[in-house]
């Protein structure tokens, strides 16, 4: 059947990610007391999915921690296609709150995020609500150092306006995050955004978690599954391999870039943590996990010599 890709299907991938993360949290892969308030279901996912999400979450976190250490948390984080990510609350609890954290996603997603925050006191209590003017409209939140804004990232002008509205500081070290987001956006739009960031920020890093090897048989099946769900994969041309992921940065004025497939990322997670999670569930499909790890990567781009240290080297 010929299905027309649509934005709603792409927005629903956020619910999937949230439910998968919540499944892993419930089993003890990591702790996140805030995710529960955003998850629609508590359905248990297969062990290889839980382990895969652990590697994704921990791999990104290790790199974010490096960035925070390098900047002493005197920095900004912009989470592109943030969905229901709970980074703001987790950093606060860890005593690592940053100068400014901005979550961007489609307005329909940010509206739901704002709604859940308003409805749940444990989320609300950790916000700097000022004089009660934090929620401006249904899709936005501006509470002290935390901002949520609804934008279509394909529209560069909307993206720039959102950052300006949040009074982004172009001179402060800034980290952009994108977790399974750019694959849904036309490569030309991603290029424009990457170029604009590199030109406008003095000291900036970008952590991108995304698919690779999408042209082999396993990758074709992944693409087919997403197409059946009517998700557009407009940015998939950058997901061929680690080089195509890195090229996106070097082609768009970034000074340096490095990329690791998830097998390497998993091996870079401290051994004690790996041993702990490997005891949580018996993995009867080791081959499937290996294939999943071979089809996802983390790619880092940077501008500013100091930020080249945002990598897995000790
Ligand atoms: C797979 S989800 C990932 C969510 C979150 N980053 C995570 O890992 O939990 C992809 C997210 O990207 C967002 N997204 C995709 N294309 C977008 C666009 N053009 N503008 C804004 N958000 C977009 C979707 O709405 C969705 O929330």
TrEMBL record:
InterPro entries with a match to the protein in the record: LCMT1 (IPR016651), Ppm1/Ppm2/Tcmp (IPR007213), SAM-dependent_MTases_sf (IPR029063)
Domain of life: Eukaryota
Enzyme Commission numbers on file: 2.1.1.233
Gene3D superfamilies, per the entry: Vaccinia Virus protein VP39 (3.40.50.150)
Catalytic reaction annotation: [phosphatase 2A protein]-C-terminal L-leucine + S-adenosyl-L-methionine = [phosphatase 2A protein]-C-terminal L-leucine methyl ester + S-adenosyl-L-homocysteine
SUPFAM superfamilies, per database record: S-adenosyl-L-methionine-dependent methyltransferases
Class of this enzyme: transferase
A Gene Ontology term for the protein's cellular component: cytosol
GO BP: methylation; regulation of signal transduction
GO molecular function: protein C-terminal leucine carboxyl O-methyltransferase activity
Keyword Methyltransferase: yes
Keywords attached to this entry: Methyltransferase, S-adenosyl-L-methionine, Transferase
Binding site for S-adenosyl-L-methionine: 56, 81, 152-153, 179
Keyword Methyltransferase among UniProt keywords: yes
Function of the molecule: Methylates the carboxyl group of the C-terminal leucine residue of protein phosphatase 2A catalytic subunits to form alpha-leucine ester residues.
Family, per entry: Belongs to the methyltransferase superfamily. LCMT family.
Identification of the protein by name: Leucine carboxyl methyltransferase 1
């Amino acid at each position: 059947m010929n299905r027309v890709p649509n934005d709603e299907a792409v927005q629903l991938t956020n619910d999937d990610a949230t439910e998968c993360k919540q499944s892993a949290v419930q089993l003890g892969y990591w702790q996140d007391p805030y995710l529960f308030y955003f998850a629609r279901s508590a359905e248990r996912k297969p062990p290889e999915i839980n382990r895969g999400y652990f590697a994704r979450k921990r791999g990104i976190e290790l790199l974010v921690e490096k960035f925070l250490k390098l900047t002493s948390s005197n920095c900004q984080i912009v989470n592109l296609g943030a969905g229901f990510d709970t980074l703001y609350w987790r950093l606060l609890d860890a005593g690592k709150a940053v100068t400014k954290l901005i979550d961007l996603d489609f307005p329909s997603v940010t509206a739901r995020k704002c709604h859940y925050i308003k409805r749940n006191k444990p989320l609300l209590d950790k916000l700097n609500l000022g004089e009660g003017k934090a929620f401006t409209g249904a899709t936005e939140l501006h509470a002290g150092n935390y901002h949520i804004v609804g934008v279509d990232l394909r529209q560069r002008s909307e993206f720039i306006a959102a950052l300006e509205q949040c009074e982004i500081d172009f001179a402060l070290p800034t980290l952009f995050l994108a977790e399974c987001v750019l694959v849904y956006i036309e490569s030309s739009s991603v290029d424009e955004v990457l170029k604009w960031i590199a030109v406008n920020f003095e000291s900036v890093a970008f952590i991108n978690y995304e698919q690779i090897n999408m042209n082999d048989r396993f990758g074709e099946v992944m693409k087919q599954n997403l197409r059946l769900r009517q998700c557009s994969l407009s940015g998939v041309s950058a997901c061929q391999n680690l080089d195509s992921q890195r090229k996106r940065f070097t082609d768009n004025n970034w000074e340096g870039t490095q990329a690791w497939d998830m097998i390497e990322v998993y091996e870079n997670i401290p051994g004690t943590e790996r041993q702990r999670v490997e005891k949580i569930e018996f993995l009867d499909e080791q081959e499937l996990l290996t294939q999943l790890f071979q089809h996802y990567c983390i790619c880092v781009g940077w501008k500013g010599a100091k930020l080249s240290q945002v990598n897995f080297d000790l």
